[in-house]
Amino acid sequence: MTPEAALELPPGCQLRVAQAGDVPALHGLHEAVLAALPDPSLFRLFGGAESFFQTHCGQRGESWVVAQGGQLLGYAALTLPLAEDADNYALNLGWPAERARSVGLLSAAMVRPSQRQQGLHRALIRQRLLRAQALGLPELLARAAPGNALSRQGLMSQGLAIVWLGEQAGGLQRHVYWRRSPAPVAGRVAIWLAADDAVGQQAALAQGWLGLRSGAGRIGYGPADI
């Protein structure tokens, strides 16, 4: 079976490692994604798009693109941060340096708006899960704005659970998601909360529950099997 088939890519699409020569096309993809958002603050690349794309072709992590012909349909990055890096979401969780330096970040994913609903986001998440396992990373973190339902659904469908909600750098409110690299988070939903109910979600997290399921405008919280 080809990698494309294993990751359920549409016919004619190719998943490959991003290269420095892809950066101009990635800027075009990024602009198309931002233009389709009701609020551009829902999606931010740490350090700005130019820096992010350049440093994730080997310096700080790895990137992949989904291409069809000469067009880029999707992009995703796996960041390999230092413990003290400002964009290491482990800092929000208060993890010790030893744990924080071994984490991988599902730090960015974009799909061209005209190409959604084809499983590209799911395939890009799975690619990074496979790569994290190959690298021996024990844990993965991701982040998304509470109002970014597409990212939330994609991440939670692949076994990531919400473990934190609060303000990150720049005053941006974000969920932080977690899973062990080899296995999805499992658990029992005890209560459904509105996706914009920050107070209710923070109370659920404070009592040790995790966000386990994504519904239509709602998130299911409960105890996890960890």
From TrEMBL:
GO MF assignments: acyltransferase activity, transferring groups other than amino-acyl groups
Origin: domain of life: Bacteria
Boundaries of every N-acetyltransferase domain copy: 13-183
Alphabetical list of InterPro entries matching this protein: Acyl_CoA_acyltransferase, GNAT_dom
Entry-linked Gene3D superfamilies: 3.40.630.30
UniProt name for this protein: N-acetyltransferase domain-containing protein
Organism of origin: Inhella proteolytica
Organism classification: Bacteria, Pseudomonadati, Pseudomonadota, Betaproteobacteria, Burkholderiales
